[in-house]
Amino acid sequence: MRFRTLDDMGDIGGKRVLVREDLNVPIMDGKISDDTRLRATVETLSELADRGAKVLVLAHFGRPKGIASGENSLMRIVPGLAAVLGREVAFISQGSPEAVLALPDGSIAVFENTRFNAGEEANDPLFARELAALGDLYVNDAFSAAHRAHASTEGVAHLLPAFAGRAMQAELEALQNALGSPDRPVAAVVGGAKVSSKLDVLKHLVARVDHLIIGGGMANTFLAARGVGVGKSLCEHDLAGTAEAILTAADTAGCTVHLPYDVVVATELKPHAATRIANVHEVAADEMILDIGPAAAEALADVLKTCRTLVWNGPLGAFETPPFDAATVMLARTAAALTREGSLVSVAGGGDTVAALNHAGVADDFSFVSTAGGAFLEWMEGRILPGVAALESNRINA
User: Fold this and answer.
1) pTM of the complete model
2) Terminal CA-to-CA distance of the chain, rounded, Å?
3) Considering only the top CATH level, what class is 182-366?
């Protein structure tokens, strides 16, 4: 990857710097319920302000579809952002050169929701030019929005000198280390409910990793494709042919696919349900596979001990409902221990994955944990992310 960072900006005192951030945080009962995305902005925004720039934050909030509303106004987010930054943050309801010029050097201001303008999601060149006219430099610090070719994530990056913010830089460097040029052997854990939601991920990974560990409900589809009876388990029987094709592609690429050979089953999915451990060939017609069994989980831990790089997306079982969290917690803790001792580079991403690692108490021990959802998944699929491609093309053309 070739892109410029804040280290390449030079003297920015008095310069107007447009910074695309992700401020799309959840609000419950009028209060921000999770400020993770706000905290991710601190390093970039603080550094730019401390270097004397006029820092102008672009972001979206909700899905207003080009219609302004108080419910989706970024004014609601400004107090929370100011709190995590520990400094004053101004709010500009309508971007204008006059309002920007009136800001003192070293200040931070948030513009109103970019999605109030229909030109944002349409990546309208006119709206991109209007945004670019407000700044001298552009910084994209929102990897979680980099899979969208919008005016504030892609269009404006072609109109101003463009740079990656610190959060974006960390994300891109971690992803490069994980699948771009990783230390081998490489393992990938892919879990989740349905194969259909991660077909492209699986197809992409089998040609790039040495070990593919499949968990969650999607493992049942692969087991069924191999003629294993999975009872009442979640299973996409109509994708048996697709699953077989992925297994064949893995064989051709020299990728070892790991499916569970013992499983935790129950007749109902509820907390602390009556369970039993069964060989995959012994699942009763009225039972559901809800987690990987202890023997298979232990074997997977041994696989990780032979690897140098791990990419993780999705839980191994129904981790939200104990006791079906056991395999996910055990393997996550194994990966965390290997990371702490320096033998494994571990990169994880996706909403359920972050929740699972937090549940296991090891999110801080992984090399990198991405809070991006769609962008992380599209990166695992091998897709070009427009927001990232714009930074790279700007660098090459500079």
Assistant:
1) 0.88
2) 15
3) alpha beta
pLDDT digits (tens, 9 = 90+) for 30-76: 899 989 899 999 999 999 999 999 999 999 999 998 999 999 999 99
**Exposure string over 282-300, b if 16+ CB within 10 A, otherwise e:** ebeeebbbbbbbeebbeeb
Distance CA 149, CA 199 (A): 23
Helix (H) / strand (E) element for 262: namely strand 262-266
Q: 311-339 as b/e, with b when 16 or more CB fall inside 10 Å?
A: bbbbbbbbbebeebbbbbbbbbbbbbbbb
Residues acting as catalytic residues: 37, 194, 351, 374
Query: Around Cβ 226, how many Cβ atoms within 10 Å?
Result: 12
Within 10 A of 140 (CB to CB), how many other CB atoms are there?
30
Sequence length of the chain is 398
CA distances from 342 to 166, 336, 345, 346 (A): 24, 10, 8, 10
CA distance 349 to 219: 19
Distances (CA, A) of 188 to 94, 169, 249, 315: 45, 22, 16, 12
Cα 279 to Cα 59, 135, 283, 300: the distances in Å are: 50, 62, 7, 16
Instruction: State the CATH class of domain 6-167+384-397.
Output: alpha beta
CATH code 3.40.50.1260 region(s) in the chain? 6-167+384-397, 182-366
Task: Report how far residue 263's alpha carbon sits from residue 269's, in angstroms, rounded to the nearest whole number.
Answer: 14
- In this predicted structure, the answer to whether residue 247 has a pLDDT above a threshold of 90 is yes
- Two tokens at 98? 């006059």
Q: Look at residues 200, 225, 177 and name the one whose alpha carbon lies nearest to residue 367.
A: 177
Structure tokens at 234: 């979640």
